[in-house]
Write a structure and sequence with these properties.
By secondary structure, the protein is mainly beta. Helix content is 8%, strand content 34%. The strands form 6 sheets. Strands 11-10-13-18-15-16 form a 6-stranded mixed sheet, with no helix packed on it. Strands 3-4-9-8-6 form a 5-stranded mixed sheet. A 5-stranded mixed sheet has the order 12-20-19-14-17, with no helix packed on it. The radius of gyration is 22 Å and the shape is globular. The structure holds CU-O-CU linkage (C2O) and copper (II) ion (CU) (2 copies). One copper (II) ion binds at residues 404, 480, 482, 547, 549, 552, 557.
Length: 564
């Protein structure tokens, strides 16, 4: 069998791209592994007969987003080479990539061409694919190169997505526009009468900041912004600034929400107080729809929300808003306090109240889609089949010495610890723990500032070092939420432990988590831990797990696990 095209460069990459000049104050390491780039011609698997064959090109583009100057963006452009034409749906007027629609059991070939000025690789978030098609950071290709993905769709019906995964550059590349939806359907879903076509609607939620010349601004707060994660000062829906969905009164819709933001967390509620009806999360439909007063949606999470406009007159407007939760101190909002960070104040603090999108019924129609009381048959993992139900593997996500760490370690391209090695065919419980900041759990006191001089560099603090003496404040800031994502698997969430979560915060978010179904990402509020159960099947190899706050991920809050 022909080995598909693959480049192994095994080196740490952190290059600044042309139009996304990220200020790297952070000391980073580049290994001088010289057995680098084997440039080969991309080859197609000879025995692989794709049902869908497409080209996906990452390009730089000028796009009209705001009035006035065009915005430089990076975007995925798709072209169907073979397959039913519904398989690739291009969204107009946006940097977002095409919506790729596939069915379970189909064989898909994707020819990724990198026309960016820097290295990249595509990852299929949530998909169960062999190692070489997962988009591991070591598989980055250079500008001008092509990487061939060939895999069979093995996932359940659900909302998946794709985005770049080069180490150290995922945040800026996604921010510049590289992301798209990958929708999987299966027989079970096809037997339901769920909305299709124009009534099956992508709603990608992101935040961005534009400068006076309409150009995207990333991490203007420098190092502090990387520690907390990027927060933009406005919301874009499907890459558009209007924050509006033009829909038809009399119709029912499936809203495919994706939180495609780098680090922003949403607490979504309909402004008129009607419940948010959720019927799918990440990698599956739920067993039954769930009505919530609000929905928590951390970075990378997807949710299927039912919207019924049948009894609404034309002209109806309905706003989905973000409602408040007390996390502001830990995010951009804190920079406004004490005037230490001139100009760094977020106008849209994490956890504040703001509109996210407005549904406008500006036409009428009808359809007869229904939301059944029973959706997917529950096929969840029986916890008693886990080899370690009572002694789960523990992974603590925390601030180390000015680094984001997992069990005290940071990213190494191919390194795997013993505790990160699992057996093919096994069922395991992992306990994912948000361990907070080291101000709280390190005895040597103030060690966080040792040796790195973060505050001294770049003039960020304007010579004002008082903040460093205010341990409470620093300690608080490092109590960040971490949305934890595991590649290769979909898991079930067994339980959340919230005893160490600030009661006020917990109270404000507790009704918004949907833990039923199959997930690939779990949002951990500060102090929270969650037990998740998963099976390692079909594929051996090296995969990653990480915090999906993309700035945390880029800073090294990512590790390999190996299936042997
Ligand atoms: Cu969506 Cu490894 O990420
Ligand atoms: Cu992923
Ligand atoms: Cu994080």
């Amino acid at each position: 069998m022909k080995e598909p095209f693959r480049i192994n460069r095994r080196k740490f990459l952190a290059k600044a791209g042309a139009s996304a000049a990220v200020t790297m104050i952070w000391p980073f390491f580049s290994s001088c592994d010289s057995q680098s780039s084997t440039t080969a011609k991309p080859e197609l698997g000879k025995d692989f007969q794709p049902d869908i064959d497409l080209e996906l090109k990452a390009v730089q583009r000028d796009l009209s987003i705001l009035s006035g100057s065009k915005t430089k963006v990076w975007a995925y452009e798709g072209k169907l080479i073979k397959g039913n034409k519904e398989a690739l749906q291009t969204l107009e007027g946006t940097y977002l990539g095409p919506v790729i629609k596939v069915s379970k059991g189909q064989k898909v070939r994707i020819r990724f061409q990198n026309d960016l000025p820097e290295e990249s690789i595509v990852h299929w978030h949530g998909m169960h694919v062999p190692e070489r098609y997962d988009g591991h950071p070591q598989d980055v290709i250079d500008s001008g190169e092509t990487y061939i993905y060939e895999y069979e769709v093995m996932n359940r019906a659900g909302t998946y997505w794709f985005h770049p995964h080069p180490h150290g550059r995922t945040g800026p590349q996604v921010y510049n526009g590289l992301a798209g939806l990958l929708l999987v359907t299966d027989e079970e879903e096809q037997q339901l009468n769920l909305p299709q076509g124009e009534f099956d609607l992508p709603v990608v939620i992101q935040d961005r900041t534009f400068d006076d010349n309409n150009q995207l601004v990333y991490l203007e707060n420098g190092q502090m912004g990387r520690m907390t994660g990027f927060l933009g000062n406005r919301i874009l829906i499907n890459g558009r600034p209007e924050q509006r969905l033009n829909l038809k009164a009399g119709c029912k819709y499936r809203l495919r929400l994706l939180n495609g933001s780098n680090s922003r967390i949403y607490k979504l509620a309909w402004e008129d107080g009607s419940p948010v009806t959720v019927f799918g999360m990440d990698g599956s439909l739920l067993n039954a729809p769930k009505e919530l007063s609000y929905l928590m949606l951390g970075p990378a999470k997807r949710a299927d929300v039912w919207l019924d406009l049948t009894n609404k007159p034309e002209g109806t407007e309905l706003t989905m808003k973000n409602t408040s939760f007390p996390l502001e101190l830990m995010s951009g909002g804190m920079m406004g306090n004490g005037g230490m960070m001139e100009g760094a104040k977020s106008v849209l603090p994490q956890g504040s109240e703001y509109p996210v999108f407005t549904v406008l019924a500006n036409a009428s129609g009808s359809n007869d889609y229904t939301l059944p009381r029973q959706l997917a048959q529950p096929d969840y993992i029986d916890p008693s089949t886990a080899r370690n139900l009572n002694a789960p593997r523990q992974f603590t996500f925390a601030m180390g010495h000015m680094e984001w760490t997992i069990n005290g370690r940071t990213w190494e391209t191919t390194e795997v610890a013993d505790e990160e090695t699992v057996k093919l065919g096994s069922t395991e419980v992992w306990e994912l723990i948000n361990g907070g900041g080291m101000m709280d759990n390190d005895d040597d006191g103030g060690g966080m500032m040792d040796g790195h001089g973060m505050m001294g560099d770049g003039g960020m603090m304007g010579g004002e070092n008082d903040m460093m003496n205010n341990q409470g404040m620093m300690g608080n800031m490092m109590q960040m939420p971490h949305p934890i994502h595991i590649h290769q698997v979909q898991f079930n969430i067994l339980e959340r432990n919230v005893t160490d979560v600030d009661p006020q915060l917990w109270d404000a978010v507790k009704d918004g988590f949907v833990d039923e179904g199959w997930h690939d990402t779990v949002l951990l509020m500060p102090g929270m831990s969650a037990k998740v159960i998963m099976q390692f099947k079909d594929f051996k190899g090296l995969f990653v797990y990480h915090c999906h706050n993309l700035e945390h991920e880029d800073m090294g809050m990512m590790r390999n696990f190996k299936i042997v």
